[in-house]
TrEMBL record:
Keyword match Coiled coil: yes
GO BP of this protein: post-transcriptional regulation of gene expression
Region (Disordered): 173-220
Entry protein name: ProQ/FinO domain-containing protein
């Protein structure tokens, strides 16, 4: 499980020499340079358990215990890493070679965490959509109300101090929405075509028609 790797980093022995002060980004970049087979590339690979011990053995004095612990905690908590953990069958060492099978327990824990994050994300999206609809309704009513400011705020359940900020957000959200296209105008369903219009259209295409000859009446 991702938490196991991060926890093991805290138990690893301290390096023999003090490590230089590095930012989290610098630690990640340095590990990627030193061990590209594991930390490089475009995707994530489940790391070998107690991989921090191997790092300290292969790069002595370059990383402190706290630096490795912090890096592994962030790395193994990344959503992309959890996706890889849920799908993979093996862990990998610093050279990118398989280093032990992944237990079904760890894969299941990764999938459960991903499901939990997806549910939280969905809740946030739904909450944001609800709040945006409420702000749009507030703006719509405010632009049409005849109530006093105090009465309007009391009716909507907001304070007079909160209202300007909510209205500004609503206006920005409205301005960011794509303009609605005008609906095409259709002729009434039961409307009959005007014979004169049809005749004029036909004449404009074929020119004037030739005069008709005399009709032959029956009996003559």
């Amino acid at each position: 499980m991702a938490a196991d790797v991060a926890a093991e980093a805290a138990e690893a022995p301290l390096p023999s020499a003090p490590a230089a002060e590095l930012s989290p980004a610098a630690v990640a970049a340095k590990l990627k340079t030193l061990f590209p087979a594991l930390f490089g590339g475009n995707g994530f690979k489940p790391v070998k358990l107690r991989v921090q011990v191997d790092i300290q053995a292969r790069a002595p004095g370059q990383f402190s215990k706290a630096q490795l612990s912090g890096f592994l905690r962030r790395y193994t908590g990344n959503t992309g890493y959890l996706i890889a953990l849920g799908r993979a069958t093996h862990r990998f060492d610093l050279d990118g070679e398989q280093a032990g099978e992944l237990s079904e327990e760890h894969r299941a824990a990764a999938r459960e965490e991903l499901a939990r994050r997806r549910a939280l994300q969905q809740e946030r999206v739904e909450l944001e959509q609800t709040q945006a609809r409420n702000r749009a309704g507030l703006l719509h009513d405010y632009e049409r109300t005849t109530l006093t400011l105090a009465n309007f705020c009391a009716l909507k359940g907001v304070t007079e101090e909160e209202l300007p900020g909510l209205l500004e957000i609503a206006k920005a959200e409205r301005a960011a929405q794509p303009a609605r296209e005008a609906r095409p105008q259709f002729a009434p369903r039961n409307a009959r075509p005007n014979p004169r219009d049809a005749r004029e259209t036909r004449d404009s295409k074929g020119g004037e028609r030739a005069p008709r000859g005399p009709r032959n009446r029956p009996g003559r």
